[in-house]
Design brief:
Rossmann fold; globular; about 350 residues; 11 helices; D-amino Acid Aminotransferase, Chain A, domain 1; 3 domains; six-stranded antiparallel β-sheet
Length: about 350
């Protein structure tokens, strides 16, 4: 089986914002993702972990594309081998013509795993181009993809299904009726903490933005791998956030606190049991906040793609999933997702 692994920021799509985001006020000044080092770092780490993961699978041929400006990173991937001494096939993509290698690889692979920022709908665009090129995407199906990309859609969905999320509203060209003691402003289509600010720093006066009540607590990530048999929750992780405004992902650690672990799993299980997972296969992530007590725990985002916590979870030889005494690991679950078992 041939798998194509594509991560947009490190894989040749870095200049796409110049073509896509002219009307996206969050990114109006951004013409190259490589100007945001945290995105390049996160993307490269995710791609490297995915290559390691799929090289562990039997009879799996791995293809990957790398931005032509990241030759050292490409050579690092090329040097990786599986137990049979086989290396991934690395193709270099010219960032000025980002879709050429991408479409060729999607056509030539049995499955394509696409990772891209939700910013400006880039993830939706990439998955759509994969399918148009004749590829078979391993990831979120259309309904879940749309739900996770648009931050207002997930709030409306949560209200419908009784999922706790922060109080919210919209900011449209500087006007809003939503009130809270502390407000966070986010791009409607956002990722990685980019473009998030707090009310006290001044709210944007142009465009449409998501407003949320700031929730006190601990930032947590819980991922699940969806196969034909359903979803399996992976061990939850604490998220370490920082950057200019304190919302950018800086790393993760496994949750060792048993109470926090169970609370994160319970809320995540509630969310995944309501999400439209039909035809979705592979890795889906959730961002949560654990409050002072369990009744204060809330969902923050649904990430319809592989998330940065793969760097931690990929190292686990085995784990016992929530509500099960069956030990498993990420490799066997992703293999089942890819092969349809």
């Amino acid at each position: 089986m041939r798998i194509y692994l594509y991560e947009m920021v490190s894989g040749g799509g870095a200049l796409l914002p110049a073509n896509i985001t002219r009307k996206d006020t969050c990114l109006s000044a951004l013409d190259d993702f490589h100007r945001i080092p945290s995105l390049v770092s996160d993307g490269s780490k995710m791609l490297e972990q995915l290559v390691q993961l799929f090289l562990r699978m039997p009879e799996m041929e791995v293809w990957v594309s790398v931005d032509s400006r990241l030759k050292d990173f490409g050579r690092k991937l090329q040097a990786m081998t599986n137990t049979r001494g086989e290396s991934p096939m690395v193709l270099y993509a010219d960032s000025s013509t980002p879709w050429a290698v991408f479409e060729e690889c999607c056509r030539g692979a049995d499955k394509s795993l696409v990772i891209a920022p939700e910013l400006a709908g880039l993830l939706d665009t990439a998955v759509g181009k994969c399918l148009i090129a004749g590829g078979d995407s391993l990831g979120a199906a259309r309904q879940l993809l749309k739900l996770g990309i648009d931050k207002s859609s997930i709030h409306r969905w949560a209200e419908q299904f009784g999922i706790p999320m922060p109080d919210w509203g919209l900011l449209e060209n500087g006007a809003y009726s939503f009130q809270a003691d502390e407000i966070i402003c986010k791009p409607l289509l956002g990722t990685g903490g980019v473009g998030i600010c707090e009310e006290e720093s001044g709210l944007p006066v142009v465009g449409t933005w998501l407003l949320e009540r700031k929730v006190a607590g601990v930032a947590v990530s819980v991922a699940a791998i969806v196969t034909a048999q359903g979803f399996t929750l992976l061990p939850p992780c604490y998220q370490h956030l920082g950057g200019e405004w304190g919302f950018e992902f800086q790393g993760a650690t496994l949750i060792e606190d048993g109470k926090h672990q169970q609370r994160a799993w319970r809320l995540a299980h509630h969310v995944f049991s309501k999400l439209p997972l039909e035809n979705t296969r592979g890795w889906i992530g959730l961002d949560l906040i654990l409050g002072e007590k369990e009744g204060d725990d809330v969902l923050i985002e649904v990430n319809p793609r592989v998330t940065s916590t793969i760097e931690i979870l990929n190292t686990l030889d085995a784990f016992v999933p929530y509500q099960s005494n069956r030990s498993t690991n990420v490799t066997e679950l992703m293999l089942a997702a890819a092969t349809g078992k």
